Amino acid sequence: MKTNYIKTALLGTVLLTSAAQAQQFPLDNLKPRDQRGINIFENPKDSVTTFEKLKVRIGGAFALQFQGLKHESGADQSVPATQLYDIGNNFNLPTANLDLDVALYDGINLHLRTFLSSRHHNETYVKGGYIQIDKLDFIQKDFLSDFMKHSTIKFGHDEINYGDVHFRRSDNAYTTQNPFVGNYLMDAYATMIFAEYYYRRDGFIGMGGITNGRLNQNANGGTSPSLYGKIGYDKQLTSDLRIRLTGSVYNTANTQRLDFYDGDRAGSRYYYVMENAAATSSANFRSGQVVPDFKNKVTSFMINPFVRYKGLEFF
Predict the structure, then answer these.
(1) Distances in Å between the alpha carbon of 11 and those of 5, 14, 18, 20, 44?
(2) What is the pTM (predicted TM-score) of this model?
(3) 3-state DSSP call for residue 90?
């Protein structure tokens, strides 16, 4: 009986190892989710294909964060002190993600991210996903191939491509892209229903997008289409020097609720920081964040320079 247990355990280990190795294959025009994806902003664009058949790549992320912060209130005698939480030093709630990347067809990929556990919710829920089209061969072989050689079409309900900061932030448990783990206090990040068109050639990047500006489609109040775009240049000039400069704009004509700088479903990385101890726990998932609460007509700009020389980076 003991021998059978050992054989079963060994067989299970081999199968799990084989499955893990099988999931490491690259998918065309989707950036890697591990350390190889650091400093990759938009998904890459390459007309060379490795597609053979439908493939599914399963991945994930797990974050266990130790928090050692202090906070105080009432330094200004003219403002009454707020009773803050005694946060102390301790480990925060572990968070986890599940990623599914699917090569559906030659030039068509699907991405789906699920938050298995997060600050905001105890239960598992879908963060968002999108379909990316880099070829139109599903219509006809080499259909508009010269046009699609430099073009990408992307649509779904996921983070919109406004600015470059959202590429270098922590997305719940996915923290390897963020050198600081904690995000900016004012977080330029939003998940919305969107459609985007990209044109990339010789380092030039051009993108135009449209969205309804909403995270929750059932929220009350009317809305109108929001338009956004990005233009920039990204080039590896030498083996040691890379430069990137992008400018982004976001404009909404009219909406009663705009989930812009307020679209993180996972919640803040700073637990109970600067929170009133008298408040309910459900209000604390945005601890330490600055939420501008934009409404109605909004126009926003962002400019992001990025320079990397050997191992030195400026962003």
Answers:
(1) 10, 5, 11, 14, 38
(2) 0.84
(3) strand
